[in-house]
């Protein structure tokens, strides 16, 4: 592989259990875009090593490198991928902005689903903490369920980065005791996503070791 070809190939750094890593990985899988995956083992503290901090100053996953650029934060990465590949980018300008509004909303609201899952599986917290975050997580799911009552996708008439970003964060909801069956429109939406070529759930998609996706 030539230097220019290497520079043009996307490299994604992520972790097996990370919903933030799953979002850009799902995008790339659905878009059928080749990329290199570099695993960052959060359990062993790789995210805090000087080598990784030189890539991601926050010590978080995911990180993306492409064409000499380093892009951080999962939703910013989705924005970048949509811009450079054209996949899952709404055709109308208003819809493109609305898709990015959804990503901002996700970061404020669906992140509570990730917190409930994290506190259920990875870190024990006081009952009062869970009592605070669980209703917020349920409210986010209820809001999306209402939006999906009369549409197939969150923006426009096709899957976009809004759907990938929101689903990618909530995908682990069952690990936090949030049963998707309680939100029937979310169930139907998730089935539409699962029917798309290239779709895979996190534990089937994210490898535990470095891997080339071609």
In short:
The protein has 214 residues and is an alpha+beta fold. 50% of the residues lie in helices and 10% in strands. The model has no long low-confidence stretch (mean pLDDT 95).
Structure notes:
With 214 residues, this protein is of the alpha+beta class. Helix content is 50%, strand content 10%. It is built from 10 helices and 5 strands. Strands 4-3-1-2-5 form a 5-stranded mixed beta sheet. Strand 1, helix 2 (19-31) and strand 2 form a beta-alpha-beta unit. The longest helix is centred in the middle third of the chain and has 21 residues, at 127-147. It is globular and about 45 Å long. The two termini are 14 Å apart.
Secondary structure layout:
Layout (H helix, E strand, L loop, with lengths): L2 H6 L1 E5 L4 H13 L3 E5 L10 H4 L9 E4 L2 E4 L1 H12 L7 H16 L2 H11 L5 H21 L13 H10 L13 H11 L7 H4 L5 E3 L1
Parallel strand pairs: 1-2
Antiparallel strand pairs: 1-3, 2-5, 3-4
Helix pairs in contact: 2-4, 2-8, 5-8, 6-7
How many angstroms separate the termini? Answer: 14 Å
Q: Which strand order does the major sheet show?
A: 4-3-1-2-5
* Share of helix, binned: 40-55%
List low-confidence stretches: none
Give the count of helical stretches: 10
Q: Report the count of strand segments.
A: 5
**Strand/helix succession:** HEHEHEEHHHHHHHE
What amount of the residues lies in strands?
5-15%
Label this structure with key terms.
214 residues; alpha+beta; five-stranded mixed beta sheet; 10% strand
